[in-house]
Specification:
By secondary structure, this protein is α+β, with helices and mostly antiparallel strands. It has six domains: about 120 residues, Rossmann fold, CATH 3.40.50; about 150 residues, Topoisomerase I, domain 2 (Orthogonal Bundle); about 140 residues, Topoisomerase I, domain 3 (Distorted Sandwich); about 110 residues, Topoisomerase I, domain 4, CATH 1.10.290; about 60 residues, no CATH class; about 50 residues, no CATH class. Helix content is about 35%, strand content about 25%. It has 19 helices and 30 strands. The strands form nine sheets. It has a six-stranded antiparallel β-barrel with strand order 9-10-15-14-11-16. Helix 8 runs antiparallel to helix 12.
């Protein structure tokens, strides 16, 4: 048997780490948490200082048994779960569940999965940090107390299946508050006035009206009459240059990614959700198959620190020097003062090694993994480069006539590209296009002639709705949540139907607005932003050993319990847009519109009828507040059989992603050019034929006599083998079109072995 047992969270890590350790080490995976609070009861004894009762998770009984058996035959057990509170708690739960003696257990942590980091972790092993465990336990207990206190109340008073959470409810509150600001916003009219001016060299440039009499005085044109008056004055004015200011400005490189900024930038540049970003990052951290070896490509992706190791900075600077030359190597970045709400437990998110530039390993990565890795790589390299430099010119122009007006023309020219050669940071804010315009070379004594005056009516805009990116930024700035909570919070509020996403914008549903209003009315302290942020700080204090975990929980629970007593008595039951629209003429059953767990829907029949009710989602077709009886009946008419083809029914229906035709096992989208209500059997058959042609192009080869059958298919990321509902990569030295059934079987067998 092996001398040492190393336990990690995921099988992927086992594969990556295994190559760094010798034959004396055995790697096993816990597959995440092994114990938790019970699923069907609170599992917290409030009278005994909130003592939690942990139970083994159903699917982890076998895992724990295997770990325990392996541990018995090992001299030492290294618990190498993730380097954060959750990871520390998992390590503690494994130790508690297996009842291993304390002298046989060591905790190791590493920020990157490299040989040096793993071996350094083993040499600097430690005991489990019980304060980290207590901090996680406090969070878990608080979340459970809130869930088991508020969720039944919301289910009883508003709608079944609702939930509330310490962070998720505050996130919904922020979104709802912004929506109310938008609804209450009163647009204000203003006019933008610009002139096109010509130089003696016949060069034309644009200058914007900014002031009257003095450049320091704010000047606004608020209506069409005033705009026309100003335009008339400008058209009869003479123009001269009042001032020219030229300045060399520097734009500093961005700092490396932390969890929140990675999620924000992936949202802006890749149009990814926070959940997808973290899934992709997790795999890059745990290890990717590079030339037959599992290689961890990035450091730990749950971090709030921008700190970089000295070795990584030196490696980046050497890379920059070799690839871009000395002139691009930046000065060492000074470490900024640590923010009070930053744990600083790990480095920033960066590539593990400069040996793996994105383009070098592109063929070994999926398209999505490559996109994210390149984003992280470029940001890290850019952070160690010199600032970009611009020559910015600002020209103040005087229009003299009946009145004296001042106009401004601004432009900039790139002098040195610096870090922008590698990376350009995106933003939610709209960029002033005039900033980057190149202006003609002018002197104060030069004369100018007016070409034209343009006026444009505009209105002030309400504050923008939050995107996932801007909401994460807001939560971070407020100190609400931590790197590990942003993605699950965003997923939860959308899954619960509190918030919908439309073109990246987060919009609160009626359910979200109503739930938030009720929680604010009765649990205003719990939803207070400062209170929630303070709670996060107190969790950090538990981690640092400054507070007892159950004392913190007690301080939080007491006001919750007091408010709960009032809410149970005074909170009125709500009917969320639920209406009885009438009787179905065919069945005589009630037709209702209501909000279900998955959003607004139409219901045919009542729960106590002999037959089960029939449901149809409203989706974006109608508004729950205005939908008519006729519209509801049209929704209930689907799915509908419109004919037969090849002795099989052809069915049309509305789906989550739009209307579709269902034929046999195929689901075929109905294009916008064809109406669901009027689609004919002939049109549906044409769509079926088109789908078959597409599928035929997708199939490279099919071995139907194999057991089970095997297909070689064209996929989004290239050819692959499909067998028994599982997909297998085709090695790069193999021609997909020439693969035999035996070669396919060998590829499948080899990949199954490598996954074990």
């Amino acid at each position: 048997m092996k001398k040492y047992l190393v336990i990690v969270e995921s099988p992927a890590k086992c594969k990556t780490i295994n190559k760094f350790l010798g034959k004396d080490y055995q790697l096993m995976a816990s597959f995440g948490h092994v114990r938790d609070l019970p699923g069907k009861s609170m599992g917290i004894d409030i009278e005994k200082d909130f003592e939690p009762s942990y139970v083994t998770m159903k699917d982890k009984t076998k895992v724990l048994k295997e770990i325990k058996n392996a541990a018995k035959n090992s001299e030492l057990v290294y618990l190498a779960t993730d380097p954060d509170r959750e990871g520390e708690a998992i390590a503690w739960h494994i130790a508690e569940a297996t009842k291993l003696p304390a002298d046989k257990i060591k905790r190791i942590v590493f920020n990157e999965i490299t040989e040096s980091a793993i071996k350094q972790a083993i040499t600097s092993s430690r005991n489990i940090d019980i304060n980290l465990v207590y901090a996680q336990q406090a969070r878990r207990v608080l979340d459970r107390l809130i869930g088991y206190t508020l969720s039944p109340l919301l289910s009883k008073k508003i709608q079944r299946g609702l939930s509330a959470g310490r962070v998720q409810s505050v996130a919904v509150k922020i979104i709802c508050k912004r929506e109310k600001e938008i609804q209450d916003f009163i647009p204000k009219e203003y006019w933008v006035i610009e002139t096109d001016l010509k130089t003696v060299k016949q060069e034309i440039f644009t200058a914007k009206l900014v002031a009257k009499d003095s450049i320091k005085e704010k000047f606004e044109v608020s209506n069409e009459a005033d705009a026309k008056k100003v335009k008339d004055h400008l058209e009869s004015s003479t123009y001269s240059i009042d001032d020219i200011v030229k300045k060399r400005i520097k734009r500093n490189p961005p700092i490396p990614f932390i969890t929140s900024t990675l999620q924000q930038e992936a949202s802006r540049k890749l149009n990814w959700s926070a959940k997808k970003t973290m899934m992709m990052a997790q795999k890059l951290y745990e290890g990717m198959d590079i030339n037959g070896e599992a290689v961890g490509l990035i450091t730990y992706m749950r971090t709030d620190s921008t700190r970089l190791s000295d070795s990584s900075k030196l490696a980046a600077r050497d890379y920059i020097k070799n690839i871009y030359s000395d002139k691009y190597v930046g000065s060492p970045i000074k470490t900024s003062k640590k923010k009070s709400n930053v744990q600083d437990a790990h480095e920033a998110i960066r590539p593990v090694s400069t040996e793996y530039p994105p383009e070098k390993i592109k063929n070994a990565l999926t398209t999505d993994h490559f996109k994210l890795y390149k984003l992280i790589w470029d940001r890290f390299i850019a952070s160690q480069m010199k600032p970009a430099e611009y020559d910015r010119t600002q020209i103040v122009i005087c229009a003299s006539g009946k009145e004296r007006y001042l106009l401004r023309a601004t432009g900039s020219v790139l002098f040195f590209d610096g870090f922008t050669r590698v990376y350009s940071e995106s933003s939610d804010e709209k960029k002033d296009d005039n900033q980057d315009k190149t202006l003609p070379l002018l002197h104060k004594e030069d004369s100018l002639n007016l070409e034209k005056v343009d006026t444009e009516q505009k209105f002030t805009q309400p504050p923008p709705r939050y995107t996932e990116a801007s909401l994460v930024k807001e939560l971070e700035e407020l100190g609400i949540g931590r790197p590990s909570t942003y993605a699950p919070t965003l997923s939860t509020i959308q899954d619960r139907g509190y918030v919908t996403k439309d073109q990246k914008k987060l919009i609160p549903s009626e359910l979200g607005m109503t739930t938030n209003d009720h929680l604010e009315s009765f649990f205003n302290t719990i939803l207070d932003l400062k209170f929630t942020a303070k709670m996060e700080t107190q969790l950090d204090d538990i981690q640092d050993g400054k507070h007892q975990w159950n004392d913190v929980v007690s301080k939080y629970y007491k006001p919750l319990d007091d408010m709960m007593g009032i809410a149970n008595k005074d909170m009125e039951k709500v009917s969320l847009g639920e209406r009885n629209l009438g009787k179905d003429p065919k069945t005589g059953k009630d037709v209702l519109v209501k909000i279900g767990r998955y959003g607004p829907m139409v219901q045919l029949g009542l729960a106590d009828d002999d037959d089960k009710p029939v449901f149809a989602g409203i989706g974006d077709d109608y508004d729950i507040k205005t939908i008519t009886f006729a519209q509801a009946l049209s929704l209930l008419a689907y799915p509908k059989t419109i004919g037969t083809f090849e002795n099989n029914d052809v069915i049309v229906n509305r789906g989550k992603y739009g209307p579709y035709v269902k034929f046999e096992k195929s689901f075929i989208s109905i294009p916008d050019t064809i109406s669901l209500e009027s689609i004919t059997i002939d049109e549906a058959i044409t769509l079926i034929h088109d789908k078959r042609k597409q599928d035929a192009k997708r199939i490279i080869n099919s071995f139907t006599k194999a057991d089970p059958p095997i297909e070689v298919l064209n996929g989004r990321y290239g050819p692959y083998i499909k067998c028994d509902k599982k997909n297998y990569k085709i090695p790069k030295d193999k021609d997909a079109a020439k693969l035999t059934v035996d070669e396919c079987i060998d590829i499948i067998k080899n990949q199954k072995k490598s996954k074990k």
